[in-house]
User: Fold these one by one.
Assistant:
Number 1:
Amino acid sequence: MISVKEASTIIQSNTKSFGEELVAFQESQFRVLKEEIVADRDFPPFNRVCMDGIAISEKAFLEGIRDFKIEGIQAAGSPQLELKDYKNCIEIMTGSVLSKNADVVIPYELVQIEKGTATVAVETVKKLQNIHLQGKDRKKGEILISENKIITAAEIGVLATVGKSEVLVEKQPKVMIVSTGDELVEVSESPLNYQIRRSNVYSLVSLLKELFISAETAHLPDDKVSLKAAISKYLETYDVLLFSGAVSKGKFDFIPEVLEELGVEKLFHKVKQRPGKPFWFGQRVAFDMSKQDVFKNKKQTTIFAFPGNPISTYVNCLKYFYPWYSKSIGIDSEKKEYAKLDSDVVFNPKMTYFLQVKIENRLGEVIAIPFSGNGSGDLANLADADAFIELPAEVSEFKKGSIFPILRYRKF
Amino acid sequence: MISVKEASTIIQSNTKSFGEELVAFQESQFRVLKEEIVADRDFPPFNRVCMDGIAISEKAFLEGIRDFKIEGIQAAGSPQLELKDYKNCIEIMTGSVLSKNADVVIPYELVQIEKGTATVAVETVKKLQNIHLQGKDRKKGEILISENKIITAAEIGVLATVGKSEVLVEKQPKVMIVSTGDELVEVSESPLNYQIRRSNVYSLVSLLKELFISAETAHLPDDKVSLKAAISKYLETYDVLLFSGAVSKGKFDFIPEVLEELGVEKLFHKVKQRPGKPFWFGQRVAFDMSKQDVFKNKKQTTIFAFPGNPISTYVNCLKYFYPWYSKSIGIDSEKKEYAKLDSDVVFNPKMTYFLQVKIENRLGEVIAIPFSGNGSGDLANLADADAFIELPAEVSEFKKGSIFPILRYRKF
């Protein structure tokens, strides 16, 4: 049995890219950028007025002029006007180009307009006041967003601004989520007294939806022949197979056996952790010998076979699949979130303990409140907690105030 | 001009429900639950075996029996077997019903099976060991999830377990996002030298997508007649109108005027904050006099008219629209996230200052690193930061280590 750290290391050294694709920029939210986004022009692209008021020439003001005849109105979105007589002014709007020959903008609040003349009530002006100079924010050609950034609303705005109507992003993996277990019935069915409803695949689908991955699902019977036939097809089609159940010592736990028979290399089975111990991880790399460049045409399928206990499946998806996916698509998978224990915890087994906690931000400190639920088998506990805190195997007494990494699944 | 606090109070006292609807449970993720979810049976629903091994009777063990003849195999998903002779055993799998007359499960690791007999190598057993008793987690009828909870992957699993194939959730509001400004061209167009591309509506659409709201968008010209005609229609159709731009003192800033002419009550205009000051907020309540119950059939439209500066629009959406939406759908809108300033900040104007910061979790502390960008007009700064920190109006020197609320827009 290996440690949680060893398991993570093996998983993180078996990541892979899913390829790249162009998508409409509005569809790129939550995806990972695979190109640099560069300023296509200066920002602002012109000397941009940032107050509504009048544009004058500093020279006139310095000569003592306070009454300015209005030559015209410069609206946003209109071609640049020219101040013909430097002693006059132009009414000018936020967002418009500064008029030619003008170099000061005085806001309406400080101006009185009567019969076509604007009188200003200020003692001094500053050259270029209320003008956002061309290129002040960014110069044409400057990098605005670097590669491998997750696209949020902020980046969407930048993409729009520079005219990237299409943008290169990492493809999402093709994922198949498979449940097994003859005791399972569909959600809409009434289980008999020895049956339960299928829930893990739906939790997994939702956990992947939080990463904006649309996964497919299937249920397979506890029968070796059917399992093998179905999984053999999935290995050809999907980048990732997620299993839930049938990975332990039971008579009908055929998954590890079937996977190995289908050429999947077992990278480990069982991790020193609770819950989630009988986790099986493997990979198959197949080469298409009919293709010219055999190595370029390899098909790599990664298999996460989680234990069937709902909490085990859940915590293992967060702990192992999430960072594997992050590293695969090129984003930082090392960044951890930490929290401070709100009370003492004792856990004697020499295994990593993933304890359910509620999370609070108490004046800038992230506090993990251990959640005394009904034991790790109880799925409903998940609905009452916000995260798992990861307590290391080497220690058995964890003091209030000590700090450990958390796996947070509730973000709001 | 009112304070940020006053603005928030006014906005939060003008929330409203959008109604409820039934959706398929797989589609309910990120929505707000509007019913209690109750255990439809005990959990576990039967005495559930939690190890693969053999089931025996404690009585036989206490009598000194260590070799048990195997009567049969109890698989998960099969009806309960009965241990016919209490001196025998049944091979039993994780997830199955405990066989009748058995009360101890011994895992395969401690058992040797040869010629139909299982020999156990243990000195003691505990009655009911490795058995998860019926109803231990939850009793039939117990509340598993309460109303007004946001549905995450955890809740999806619970809904599946109790067979809620359809679930009652709050409807999402119908939102129209309107940009104005004749200087704006489409993202795919090449702007002339006095034009810029339309970006705020796309940022707003994305910010709303993070709340799982699908908003519609429109662009209106800076022309009072067209504005009035279009907005008049939107008031009939939408729960919320979001504007960006045309709310200031400019000659073509018709929005406040048009809204008031259309019967929208202005609740405030301008807030003591930077950026985002010229924010206009109002509401129209219209009664359908043709309907029998006039008050029940009122149509309430809420209008957030944000300033056109991209950062202003962005911060105001986070600061005002987000909590308004949260309170409207029934979730806690008071919960704040705090962070500790990582360096001194000075801001002299007597206004609330929304400063862009990067966020780091340093061993359980949320740290806000002020981001020295190119000034508040620079949209590309948003791509480099993670949040705004809200620095109060009454103070002008903010010391390193002091703690303030943050508005976080980047969650990963």
Note: The longest strand of chain A covers residues 352-362.
Number 2:
Amino acid sequence: MRAVFQQELKEVQSRLVELARGAQKIVTKASGAFLNSDVSLADEALALADSNEEKALDLDELVIRILATQSPVARDLRILVSALRMSASLERMGSLASHIAAIARYRFPGSAIPESLRPTFEEMAAIDQELASKAVSLLENTDLDIAREIQARDEAVDLLHRKVFDVVLASDWSENAMYTVDVTLASRYFERFADHVVDISAKVSFLQTGEW
Amino acid sequence: MRAVFQQELKEVQSRLVELARGAQKIVTKASGAFLNSDVSLADEALALADSNEEKALDLDELVIRILATQSPVARDLRILVSALRMSASLERMGSLASHIAAIARYRFPGSAIPESLRPTFEEMAAIDQELASKAVSLLENTDLDIAREIQARDEAVDLLHRKVFDVVLASDWSENAMYTVDVTLASRYFERFADHVVDISAKVSFLQTGEW
């Protein structure tokens, strides 16, 4: 029974890694769509987000089945409850990235980014992609050094998010309301994406150390 | 053991109702703060959101303890897993409403709403408060008529959310970028708040009927 259970936990882990890889692909394509007004990348991001949502639901069903058949307690139970939450975060990351892709799609053939904010968004998109890649590594290896790196990179995203507002609210901002709306929402989505990676790393750290 | 378990499920239900009442209070105070530039209401909303977050964490711990001691299966297990998710939604609703309060606080003594959008936001805030109240009733009585009403009211919020963008992106929009940012984010928070009520009602319906 214990061997079966260990096998099942491995399966949960590998599905979480797969979901994280999905979120990484979605944010990569969504960033490309957003930065380069690329509609076909946007469509790929939207389709991948749907498929990631289905995979998250499948994982949830697997976890519920394991809870029912194995009646785990203590740390094993916490691992499975955390898996449900991480699955929700990974699904949400795909969904947030797909909203970024949708903005690009909506503004095509125009760009959703004014030139003055391009470097800021390039950096934000790069860090979100890096964070998604770190989420994959963390779920594969549960290395707490990665958890600490994630914390630091999230702070960089928060600074860039605030910088977007500083630029938009400065007296020399002369772009139209459409740009203002697009960059406000896109920045919010990038920032929330990073928050979810932090949530995931907090859960992995908790399972390793018992401390939040 | 079964009697103890039924007692525990009752406790979970009453804590979910309490969290929903908390979310209702937070969105009521946040709406007042946002519509009337009332900083003391904003502070109350922010403090309540912190306390709701703690209550949600306490509920999660209770659910994990019940899972560990009762090893529920089938519908009982699904009720508890759903409770974890509803707890997350109710906590998030408080957090989203507190972001609305924070916008009001940030713009004080000015208003975050231009007059042209005041009626739209009044309606949106009223429906979100109504939705929170319906979430309380639904969690108390698991009445599926309420679940259907929630669906319809959420559609009304989506229309108002789109209306905000229509107004902001119209050629006669002449407000400054600060207003554009504020109303874009506030509208998004109101809309996400309503989405979470729909998520909760879908879970209650599923537990009652076995169908999504």
Note: Chain A has a mean pLDDT of 96.
